[in-house]
Amino acid sequence: MTGTQTKFKAALVQMRTKMSVEKNIADASKLIREAKDMGADYIQTPEMTNIMEQGRDGLFAQLKEEERDDALAAFRQLARDLKTYLHLGSLAIKASPDKAVNRSFLIDREGEIVTRYDKIHLFDVQLPGGESYRESNTYRPGEVAVTADLPLGRLGFTICYDLRFPSLYRALAGAGAHFLAVPAAFTKQTGEAHWHVLQRARAIETGSFVFAAAQGGRHENKRETFGHSMIIGPWGKVLAEGGTDPQVVIAEIDVEEVGRARARIPSLEHGRRFEVASTAQERGHLHLVGKAS
Fold it and tell me: Considering 53, 94, 135, 160, which one is annotated as catalytic?
């Protein structure tokens, strides 16, 4: 990706992560190599690439601090061997004796960590049918939105449940992001209802590409994830989509489409911030408080 080139291939690795870190490293590495063989310059894996374990005891029995993490070390070496940008959608990393972080890593062609992002919005929900998640019991939330530069554009980082908070994506696009990453482990129930519309909405409202590598299928721990890894263009068109099985999803990215989409609908330039009036006399009215960047 040099010179006047404006196109590259982005690939998403869709997984069905197991409860063994060693097995997950092997499964992901095989698909990452397949993506590289298909010509990918940027490869993204899903949320929880290294382990899918909801029980605290089972999780912390395998978790390690970043500098000792076997998965991170293996994937850094793989990026170095393949000479590719490798975006680990997230790894569960031990942050303290009783808390982990859900952390993305962007690794460059030399195996160096370009940047890290900790998932900001934690999935604490009670779904119909008794399905329940409380990530805050195990994970510590991130506090900072993050971008990083690839050779052909800027990447904005998010993870899974972040998808439901559009202000984050507007901020990333406002900070110059051409591509928005949404690696995920969406539940089957919420994915069937909201995955496609939310991903396309984030692309359309920011005029950005969306790269969303996903977990798919029924896992060893009995959790069922939605799959359907997606690459979406800045006009909202789905460029590539997977099913539910482990696979590689790939598409050619023309970075110039971002500028064309934002010129047609310059909503990033037109936004305003509002506050909702709280007095009885003003209830129901909105007040302009300033222009959003």
Answer: 160
Q: Is residue 13 helix, strand or coil?
A: strand
Number of structural domains (the chain) is 1
Q: Specify whether 110 is catalytic.
A: no
Q: Provide the 3-class DSSP secondary structure of residue 175.
A: coil
Q: Is 47 a catalytic residue?
A: yes
Q: Looking at residue 221, what is its pLDDT?
A: 87
The answer to whether residue 2 sits within a structural domain is no
Range of the domain at 54: 7-265
Task: State the CATH number of the domain containing residue 105.
Answer: 3.60.110.10
At 4-28, the pLDDT tens digits run 689 999 999 999 999 999 999 999 9
Q: What is the DSSP letter of 193?
A: I
Catalytic residue, from 36, 64, 94, 119: name it: 119
pLDDT digits (tens, 9 = 90+) for 26-50: 999 999 999 999 999 999 999 999 9
